[in-house]
Each structure stands twice: as C-alpha cells, then as structure tokens.
Amino acid sequence: MKALLTDKQILELIQLNKDGGFRSLMHQFQEPIYWHIRRMVTLHDDADDVVQNTFIKVYKNIDKFNRDSKIYTWIFRIATNESITFLKRKKRKRTESIDEKEGSIEYSLRSDPFFDGNAAELVLQKAILSLPEKQKAVFNLRYYDEMNYKDMSEVLGTSVGALKASYHHAVKKIESYIKGQ
C-alpha cells in the first residue's frame, strides 16, 4: 500500500510539475471524493460528472489554494458545492408526472448497476435523499466519511455548533423516515 503524501509534498510536486503533481493529488483524493459525491447525487454517472467538474475546478484554482487549510477539506468543499449545484440544476430540469416511475429515487437506485445494497440500505439511502442538501452533506461527511466537526466546518463554512445541530436533526429525520417504513 502506497503511503499518502502530505499537503506540503503535494504542493511541492504541483510547483515542480503542475500536471504530474495534480495526478498525484487526484490519485490520493479521487476515490474518497467520488464516494462523497456519489452519496449526495446517488447515481454513478451523475457522480462521475460531478467528480470531473470538481477536479477541473481544483486544477484551475490550485494556485489560489489557501495553505492555512488542508487540501482535503478544500477539495471536499469544492465537491460539496459542485454536488449541491448539480442537484439544484437537476431539480429545476426535472419535469416528472406524479405517476412517472422512472423519476423516483427508488427506481433510480434499483436500476443503477453500481448500487448493490440490500433492502435496509435502500431505505437508508431513501431517508438520506429526503434530507435538505446541507443536512445531507453534513450527515454524509460525519456518518460515512467520519470527518470531524472542525474539518466539516472548513468544508461547509458553518460553525461547529451549527453542524452538530444539523447532524442531530438529520439523524432524527432519518430515524423518523425509517420508522415510518
């Protein structure tokens, strides 16, 4: 298993050779960013598009990176914002009828060849998808990515106290959703 590079090492590589350094950055962060985005946008193809947009933004703006923060929190912030923007755009474009099965969350998850969850996982995913975008991001970062509140504060630009409250509300909504099933 290859050791992870430090932020300093990644930035030095980028300074020496932007493309080569960026490849190292992508190698290190692509998988966790994919799964973070995937949990927010649900479908594999959508996640791939958002990952691509995220890394394009990272590449274009790496020279503006504020070295006071961590690279991974900076990239997660870009990924979160790109995911929320994608979801808002998709919501505006959606014009589905009440009985249109293909537009449902459950249909999307079940028809996704990359989703192999069982019935319990499907219910959990539906519960998470019912959350507002910001609560969904907070829940995913804490529950799946096990990110601490301080780093989440950097990613989401919100106070630690507000994040704790948001996570608590998200958990309660998920519990309520699951009990209603």
Describe this structure in words.
The protein has helices at residues 7-16, 18-41, 44-61, 71-93, 105-111, 119-129, 133-143, 149-156, 160-179. It is mainly alpha-helical. The protein has one domain: Orthogonal Bundle (Rna Polymerase Sigma Factor, Chain: A). α1 packs across α2 (18-41), α2 (18-41) runs antiparallel to α3 (44-61) and α6 (119-129) crosses α9 (160-179). The longest helix is centred in the N-terminal third of the chain and has 24 residues, at 18-41. The chain is globular and about 55 Å long. The chain starts with 6 loop residues before the first helix and ends with a helix. The model is unreliable at 96-103 (pLDDT under 50).
> What is the CATH-assigned architecture?
Orthogonal Bundle
Rg measurement, Å: 18 Å
Uncertain spans: 96-103
Distance between the termini: 42 Å
Q: Helix/strand-derived class? A: mainly alpha
For the record, the CATH class is Mainly Alpha
Query: Mean pLDDT, rounded to whole units?
Result: 86
Number of helices: 9
User: What share of residues is helical?
Assistant: over 70%
